[in-house]
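Work Package 4 report. The design task specified in the project plan requires that, given a folded chain encoded as structure tokens, an amino acid be chosen for each position. We show below one input record used in the internal validation round.
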């Protein structure tokens, strides 16, 4: 299996051209390639597949083999991949995902694609649609007990479910201990991604993230969008926010007129190779 290792500010995935749909067990492949000791090492697997609704289809799998609906960092690298490989010459692409069709504007510097701006769609705030088992229609700055401690949380879906909580210090959080308790909390039937946010000013926030199926990652695109939306809803930030993550910065814009959220950031190729995985290639 030929692959390309890419990352968006440290949120890294293994990319495979699967336009012929040869990968028979993507979950097994994802778990194998994601292993940082016995595989390639990544937060998951992303497949390039054909689409009858858009230019391409993106299928993404977390490190534990579970399938995700959308990945903001991943889709930027996805778009760079198809352009770099000559699969398209378009600088504006449509990509079918499990959370709908996304439009991506590639950023080119000289002959190189260095990043992209992604139309992430409208944030979902209704708890039933996130999904979240909750007594009110929305969950904005409401108390949630997690492992015996009360957190003020805001729930947002950007294709994936997110719960955002504001903290005074992101560095001191024992995220590897508390993260799983959020992820598997009984109010989230499909598990949840958790963002711990520190407000720097109205245009800048700092974030650490625990992703369902992958644990702590250096960045999360949908999480950055959810955090920016939550920061605005709670009166902490405006509609254009720089989100500072462990791997780097992302720019999130929440358009007041259309309600759409836009995510901008880099896309980087790390290396390419070939790996043999018995029993999963048709």
């Amino acid at each position: 299996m030929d692959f390309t290792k890419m990352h968006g500010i440290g949120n890294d995935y293994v990319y495979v051209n699967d336009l012929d749909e040869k990968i028979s067990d993507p979950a097994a492949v994802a778990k194998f390639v994601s292993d940082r000791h016995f595989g390639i090492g990544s937060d998951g697997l992303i497949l390039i597949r054909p689409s009858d609704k858009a230019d391409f289809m993106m299928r993404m799998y977390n490190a534990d083999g579970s399938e995700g609906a959308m990945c903001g960092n991943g889709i930027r690298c996805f778009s760079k991949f198809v352009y770099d490989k000559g699969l398209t010459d378009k600088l504006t692409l449509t990509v079918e995902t499990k959370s709908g069709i996304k439009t991506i504007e590639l950023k080119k510097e000289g002959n190189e694609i260095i990043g992209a701006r992604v139309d992430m769609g409208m944030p979902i705030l209704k708890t039933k649609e996130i999904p979240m088992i909750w007594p009110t229609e929305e969950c904005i700055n409401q108390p949630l007990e997690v492992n015996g401690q009360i957190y003020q949380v805001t729930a947002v879906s950007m294709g994936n479910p997110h719960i955002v909580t504001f903290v005074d210090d992101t560095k001191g959080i024992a995220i590897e201990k508390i993260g799983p308790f959020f992820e598997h909390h009984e109010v989230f039937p499909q598990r949840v991604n958790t963002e711990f946010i520190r407000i720097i000013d109205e245009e800048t926030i700092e974030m650490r993230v625990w992703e369902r199926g992958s644990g702590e990652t250096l960045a999360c695109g949908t999480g950055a969008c959810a955090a920016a939306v939550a920061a605005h809803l709670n009166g902490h930030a405006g509609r254009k926010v720089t989100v500072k993550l462990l791997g780097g910065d992302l720019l999130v814009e929440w358009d007041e007129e259309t309600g759409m959220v836009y995510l901008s950031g880099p896309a980087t190729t790390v290396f390419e190779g070939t790996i043999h995985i018995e029993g999963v290639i048709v």
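The CA atoms of residues 201 and 237 lie 7 Å apart. Validation will be extended to a larger panel in the next phase.
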